[in-house]
Amino acid sequence: MTSPEQTPSRPPVSGTRPHDLAELPAPRRPWRRATLVTLAAGTLASLWLALSVLPDVVYSLRGGAPRDLGALVSLRLDSSLAGSWVRGEGQLSATRAIRYARPLEHDTYRLASVEGNPKVWVQIRVPANEEGPRFVPPDSFVGRLLPMSELGIRQRGLPAAVGKSGVESPPSDAWLLVDGESPAALRWALGLLALLLAFATFNVVGLVRLTRAIPTREPST
Q1: Counting C-beta atoms within 10 Å of the first and last residue's C-beta, which end of the chain has fewer, N or C?
Q2: Does one domain contain both 90 and 161?
Q3: Considering Cα of 121, then 122, then 128, then 134, what sign does the dihedral take?
Q4: Do β-strands 84-89 and 67-71 pair in parallel, antiparallel, or remain unpaired?
Q5: What span, in angstroms and rounded, lies between the C-alpha atoms of 194 and 210?
Q6: What's the pTM value of the predicted model, to 2 decimals?
Q7: Please, are residues 128 and 119 in contact by the beta-carbon 8 Å criterion?
Q8: pLDDT tens by residue, 151-191
Q9: Which has the closest alpha carbon to 124: 114, 59, 134?
Q10: Among 127, 131, 136, residue whose Cα is nearest residue 94
């Protein structure tokens, strides 16, 4: 039986030297580039959505009672009301109004201007079993007040939808009162923001790891 000291070592491959391998061209990595592009696009999309949902998060953290605005027909609009939780009364117009639906929801929505004040529009939710010609809209509303120039993702296309329906479009300085949207009703935005930031962080870590130079040891001579 041969002892470990007597075991012959394998000779190096003839003609192969460590510094010769360093001179070989870098291998093609098409999937690495595709991965980098995907991670970068995911990072930008996540950050953009996080910024878009940030106003909802700020609103969801509000406390206290809604601000009483009184009659909406005589409401004086100023920047201090933006993003406020408010209460107001008014009659909705029957002609300056549209009805629309959202995917995966059975209820429908109505968007109408306040009678006598075309600068204030109200969005109300109509239960599926109450929609019809006999539906009588409420005259008291509690919800979130926003300038139409600062609408979020869920309501951003409403002014254009009004114009496409044949109804006179809201003026550029119009405001929207989203009836029923209390701060507590938007607490889901906190979880969504955390998820988007976590996804962006995951993509950034992946980009750093893929683009980081790997240290190599110089071959011994």
Answers
A1: N
A2: yes
A3: negative
A4: parallel
A5: 24
A6: 0.75
A7: no
A8: 888 888 888 888 888 888 898 899 999 999 999 999 999 99
A9: 114
A10: 136
Give per-residue pLDDT as tens, 201-219: 999 999 998 887 555 555 5
56 plus 109 within the same structural domain: no
Nearest to 92 by CA among 135, 147, 133, 139: 139
Please tell me whether residues 127 and 109 are part of one structural domain. yes
Contact 170, 117 (CB under 8 A): no
Alpha carbons 176 and 152: distance in angstroms, whole number: 11
- Number of structural domains the chain divides into: 2
Which of residues 198 and 13 earns the better pLDDT score?
198
- The type of residue at 8 is P
Question: Are 43 and 71 within one domain?
Answer: no
Task: Look up residue 135 and give its two tokens.
Answer: 């539906």
Residue 175: count of CB within 10 angstroms of its CB: 23
Cα-based angle 155, 158, 159 (whole degrees, multiple of 5): 130
151: in domain: yes
Task: Assess whether 78 and 105 both reside in one domain.
Answer: yes
Calpha distance 137→12 (Å, rounded): 89
190 in the same domain as 107: no
